[in-house]
Specification:
Length: 388
């Protein structure tokens, strides 16, 4: 299949918009949106029947329904057994569920990195405040040049437990794919439980979640797996599932891991029920062909920009998949306020959507590509930044 402008019509992106920001909230294909709309129309013909009898089990009487069937299909993305996976609205919701289910105690440590996603950072701060636990932030190398450099940095900074370490699988701001198996092993040696935040992983890299050795893993399906928003999965090791509860506890308390997470009160289930349509779309594109195109396009564009600006990236090619951050030329003042102004100017003056952020005294632009992008998008970005 041809990618680039020839497939852009599969999405409802504005004509003329350069969208180099697929990683933020994803872009749902039109075919998947239509499947979701049909699901919503069907539900409205008899909402009680569809939601309470067919999609989830009756209140207090959990039974497998269409939601469980969708989760079973989606579990393949995690390389996991369906019975170990439950739906959550997004990765941050799953992180909160784990934080508040593990029973953090006075003096426990919750380890995060300086590059941990901001929403997760705040969730950790809140959970530690409630439990009397201690948040610990560790510094990883920036830029990241090798997996060994990450391991050495964590080994030097990691405290001993008891507590929890939250590890990124793919760092949100920089796109770096971290060596999670080895990182989990380090944490285990220090007596820490491990939660992997894989918000960006499903649909971007091949996963084998049970093999990583973590206690829990969360990932979004609405970023790279083409599902509608909001839609994510939480995997929990079987021995911990009896302790795990959703952020919103409702009628199915103590009715089992799956039952509790599948009924947290009235919500729109259509995003989850549209997951099979999203995976059908992914199959139609051919996941391996998509991965090859996206990675190749990203690094062709990144190397061209680095040569043009005489700058660098936040991670090497072998540690990236479909997104990375590129350092902007030093002529741009490196402040958070200027990063926001630059991001807005790219969009409102040049119709280019790409996040700009300040880190380490420099400005960076994060580029995340999907098959609707092509090399001309990088040229448009360079032209816009020259004009600014």
């Amino acid at each position: 299949m041809e990618f680039g402008s020839s497939v852009r019509g599969e999405w409802r992106l504005e004509p003329g918009l350069v969208y180099l920001n697929h990683g933020t909230v994803g872009v749902t294909p039109a075919a998947v949106l239509e499947a979701q709309a049909e699901i919503r129309r069907a539900i409205e013909t008899n909402p009680s029947r569809h939601i309470l009898r067919e999609i989830v089990g009756m209140l207090g009487e959990p039974a497998p329904g269409r939601l469980r069937a969708a989760v079973e299909r989606a579990a393949v993305l995690f390389g996991a057994r369906a019975e170990d996976v439950v739906p959550v609205e997004n990765a941050t919701t799953g992180v909160n569920a784990v934080l508040h289910s593990l029973g953090l105690g006075e003096g426990d440590k919750v380890v995060i990195a300086e590059t941990t996603y901001g929403g997760v950072r705040e969730a950790v701060r809140h959970a530690c405040r409630l439990a009397g636990a201690q948040p610990v932030s560790v510094r990883l190398p920036h830029p990241i040049r090798s997996p060994e450099a990450v391991l050495e940095a964590l080994d030097a900074a990691l405290p001993s437990g008891p507590g929890l370490a939250i590890l990124d699988h793919i760092v949100s701001e920089t796109g770096a794919v971290l060596p999670v198996r080895e990182l989990v092993r380090l944490c285990r040696e220090r007596g820490l439980r491990v939660l992997i935040d894989g918000a960006h992983a499903p649909g971007q890299i091949q996963l084998d979640v049970p093999s990583y050795g973590a206690d829990a893993y969360v990932g979004n399906l609405h970023k790279w797996a083409f599902a509608p928003r909001s839609c994510g999965l939480l995997w929990v090791a079987p021995e911990l599932q009896p302790r795990m509860h959703p952020v919103v506890v409702s009628w199915n308390l103590d009715q089992g891991f799956a039952a509790e997470f599948e009924w947290t009160g009235t919500r729109d289930p259509s995003a989850f029920l549209a997951v099979p349509a999203a995976l059908d779309f992914l199959d139609r594109l051919d996941f391996e062909a998509l991965r090859k195109y996206n990675h190749g396009l990203l690094w062709r564009g990144v190397e061209w920009l680095n040569g043009l600006w005489d700058t660098s990236t936040t991670a090497g090619e072998k540690m990236s998949a479909f997104m990375t951050a590129v350092e902007l030329p030093p002529r741009f003042e490196a402040t958070p306020a200027n990063a926001s102004r630059l991001r807005d100017a790219l969009l409102f003056e040049h119709r280019i959507e790409a996040p700009v952020f300040e880190f380490g005294g420099r400005l960076w632009v994060r580029l995340s590509v999907q098959v609707y992008n092509e090399f001309r998008d990088f040229e448009r970005l360079a032209e816009a930044l020259d004009a600014l």
